[in-house]
Amino acid sequence: MPIWDVDIQAANIEETSWISGEAENVVKRRQLPLDQMPERDEVLYNAYEYWDSKRDGGLLPSRGNIDILDITRLIKHTHLIDVRDPDPDNWFFRLVGSIIPQSWEWGSGRDTLSDCPWPQYKEMLVQDYGTVKATGAPMYHEIAIRLDWVAYQYSRVMLPFADDGRAVDTLMSCVVHRALPDLPV
């Protein structure tokens, strides 16, 4: 289990690092309230607005409420994660947008979280996906990672779906790659 050092003075940036072979890997993450989602994250804002428009009477929308034709501009940024299983290791990707780095050998098809080759990155995903699953509330993050010498920086909004309107069974994660100069890796 990684140890997350939280520095309140540094805008709640959580960071962990570890050595994998010869590479030093780094995961940094900052959670921000949805109302602080920057305007530059228009794709993420549109995903949230679409999700919110599908809610009925305060209930969560079901995955069946998504009309693929409504979100064609979002698809390449969108991942659908099945979180029905009580064991996070068995959560798997139903859909992976083309924004996933082509150099990754994980995170496509029906890969599970247990297949993730980077333990601390997996732990961050389990923590974040688990929080959205448990609360039924969307989350927004800015993330900077360096995995096996390759650096990525991105913003992400995670949106919960529930067939019964209450028990989260699917997550929609929308990702936009962008520079985060205050989160160097």
3D architecture notes:
By secondary structure, this protein is α+β, with helices and mostly antiparallel strands. The chain has a single domain (5-177), classed as Beta-Lactamase, CATH 3.30.450. The chain is built from 2 helices and 8 strands; from the N terminus they run E-E-E-H-E-E-H-E-E-E. Strands 1-2-3-6-7-8-4-5 form an 8-stranded antiparallel β-sheet.
Please provide a brief summary of the model.
With about 180 residues, the protein is α+β, with helices and mostly antiparallel strands. It is about 15% helix and about 30% strand. The chain has an eight-stranded antiparallel sheet.
- What class would the helix/strand composition place it in? alpha+beta
Name the CATH architecture: 2-Layer Sandwich
Shape type:
globular
Helical proportion, percent range: 10-25%
Name its key features:
alpha+beta, eight-stranded antiparallel sheet, 2 helices, 32% strand, globular
Outline the secondary-structure elements.
Layout: E1 5-7, E2 13-20, E3 23-32, H1 42-53, E4 78-82, E5 92-96, H2 119-135, E6 139-147, E7 150-161, E8 170-177
